[in-house]
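Q: Make up one entry.
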Amino acid sequence: MKKYYLLFLFIVQTLLSAAQTVVPVRNEPRHHNVFENNFVRVLDVRVNPGDTTGFHKHETPSVFIVLHPVKTGSEVKIEEQKATALSPDPSISFEGFYKSPRIHRVWNEDTAQFHVMDVEIVSKGGHPTEAPIQQDGFKMLFDEQPVRGYRLTLPATNTIQLQRQSPLLIVGLTNAAQPLSINKQSFSKEGDYLFIPSGQAVQISNSNQQPYSFAVLEIK
């Protein structure tokens, strides 16, 4: 009997140890690495109701794009005392993690899925940078060392064009009644995204009868 009891204790301790293991955020199972290049790493994060992520570490400058906000909780192991979440828009924010990483786990206390995109800015910088975008519909939310963030609100049945020296990442913020298009790629669901290489022309078309919003990241 004692042998089985000791075996049980060993299994419990092993499971508890595994639950406390800290991994880079890109390796946490609910953070799905859906795109990566020399400029960005796009993690599509989905936490179901009642589910909890493992402990993970954020240490790369990141833009967080909240696509489906719900009531969540968090257990923090390490965090800068005054963490920087820069943005007047709660759906699109930047954190640098310059002084300290954040090590935490997150759980979903709600009845719907928590959906957020964590865009790590892995660019080493040094790319040509123009003045911020001034076109109608663009609202600049932050202008940080590695990235600028904008919310683009495109009016109904409208098309815009732009071309930038810096690469862009464009993310759809909501589901659309009718598909939109960016350079002929269809956008219809929250979290649809497209990376635009530096210098490439961009055409964004909204065929819906209501405005549609995007997060636009300009990588430096």
